[in-house]
Design a protein that fits this description.
With 387 residues, the protein is an alpha/beta fold. It has two domains: 3-234, Spore Coat Polysaccharide Biosynthesis Protein SpsA, Chain A, CATH 3.90.550.10; 237-386. Helix content is 55%, strand content 10%. It is built from 13 helices and nine strands. It has helices at 31-45, 62-68, 81-91, 111-119, 140-157, 176-179, 188-198, 221-234, 237-260, 271-302, 308-316, 319-346, 355-386, and strands at residues 10-11, 14-15, 18-24, 49-55, 72-75, 96-99, 124-128, 169-172, 203-207. A seven-stranded mixed β-sheet has the order 5-4-3-6-8-7-9, sandwiched between helices. Strands 1-2 form a two-stranded antiparallel ribbon. β3, α1 (31-45) and β4 form a beta-alpha-beta unit. Mean pLDDT is 87; it is low at 1-13.
Length: 387
């Protein structure tokens, strides 16, 4: 990104300052060397800078070692990768923030290259380790899981990032309010990418190498992988709720159609069973669909997550539309039930011969009630935006 949109390396003749933020949990074997290499990187940049170590509850003297090496140390007793960085970002003085791990897996000589990309106008710069993993630097589960999770994230959010979990990053401090990060664990890395993409930040990815770590690893592939997956899904209610909900509705409707059109492959003896299964799928699908819409409303109204698609829907569809639709559906179901009860009464309340219609009537009434009250819930969530 060059030209008029490029951001100058200086303000009023003073070069933009840099804070290198290093989260640390029991890294006594490597933290001093990390601090030393950080200061060397700042010296090559020839601009104001600081090294900020966030001690995340170390018990091996890491904090004191970092302090003796010249770093400013911030204590963050709440454990977690995200917690450490949130504390570090809040305490940092630099215009640019560089994120780097305390285990020597990343080459500190790459830091000036990341800062140069910020100077060029990019707002978030992320390393890509996948093409430069040194022997023994990444476990088998991570080699398999990282591309899968990054691929899923790219598919759902259309990000330009191939390695969404790389720990070497740089960002402009003034984009932090836009990102509004709040994850406390390793999923912090995924959240940063997702919110950066949704906020239309300028993102750059740079190829780097990953070296064998020093000291003992704190990574738990299954637990941390699940936290990433959970966040990726939660931030995409369309995929988590709307897609499966729509599939269930379509499948249930098709099952009901086969019953009333006498097309059920199971024969007449199974008509009522097929109708019950189809109706159950429709009811559950509508419920899941409603939860998905509420999830998107919560993200847009409460969390402030940009969602242009939902914004367009919200401008076109009001509470009253949902209430009218829900009421009409309910009335149709009750009317159908009334006709059925009338026929039943005419037969002296004997054996009910219209079980399929009874199931259909109840299903329509339930769907109408779901639509009616889901509309109110969406409106309640929308009160946050109104304020």
């Amino acid at each position: 990104m060059q030209g008029a949109a490029a951001i100058s390396t200086s303000v009023a003749g003073v070069a933009r300052s840099v804070t290198i933020v290093i989260p640390c949990l029991d890294e006594a074997a490597t933290i001093e060397e990390c601090v030393r290499r950080s200061f060397a990187a700042i010296a090559r940049l020839e601009r104001p800078g600081e090294v900020l170590v966030v001690d995340n509850g170390s018990s091996d003297g890491s904090a004191e070692l970092a302090r003796n090496a010249g770093a400013r140390v911030v204590d963050e007793p709440r454990r977690g990768y995200g917690s450490a960085y949130l504390a570090g970002f809040a305490a940092a003085d630099g215009d640019y923030l560089v994120m780097v791990d305390a285990d020597l897996t990343y080459d500190f000589d790459e830091i000036p290259r990341f800062v140069e990309e910020l100077d060029a106008g990019y707002e978030l710069v992320i390393g890509n380790r996948l093409g430069g993993v040194q022997p023994g630097a990444m476990g088998l589960l991570s080699r398999i899981g990282n591309p899968i999770l990054s691929g899923l994230l790219n598919a759902l959010y259309r990000t330009p990032v191939k390695d969404a979990h790389c720990g070497l990053r740089a960002l402009r401090r003034d984009v932090l309010p836009t990102l509004a990060l709040n994850s406390t664990g390793m999923e912090f890395a995924s959240e940063m990418v997702i919110r950066a993409v949704r906020s239309n930040l300028q993102i750059r990815e740079l190829p780097i190498e990953l070296h064998v770590r020093g000291g003992e690893s704190k990574l738990s592939p299954f637990r941390d992988g699940w936290r990433h997956l959970r966040l990726i899904l939660v931030y995409s209610p369309g995929f988590l709720f709307l897609f499966p909900g729509s599939i269930m509705i379509v499948a249930g409707a098709l099952a009901d159609v086969t019953v009333f059109a006498h097309l059920s492959i199971f024969g007449r003896a199974w008509y009522i069973h097929t109708a019950i299964v189809g109706s159950a799928l429709v009811i559950v699908g509508i419920q899941v669909l409603g939860l998905g819409l509420c999830g998107r409303a919560y993200g847009a109204f409460v969390l402030g997550t940009p969602d242009p698609g939902f914004d367009r829907l919200q401008r076109r569809v009001r509470l009253e539309h949902g209430l009218v639709l829900g009421t009409l559906i309910t009335v149709v179901g009750l009317s159908l039930g009334g006709v059925l009860v009338g026929k039943w009464a005419a037969r002296g309340f004997g054996t009910l011969s219209e079980e399929r219609l009874a199931v259909l009537s109840v299903t329509i009434v339930i769907v109408g009630i779901q639509v009616f009250f889901t509309s109110f819930l969406l409106s309640i969530l929308g009160l946050r935006r109104a304020r």
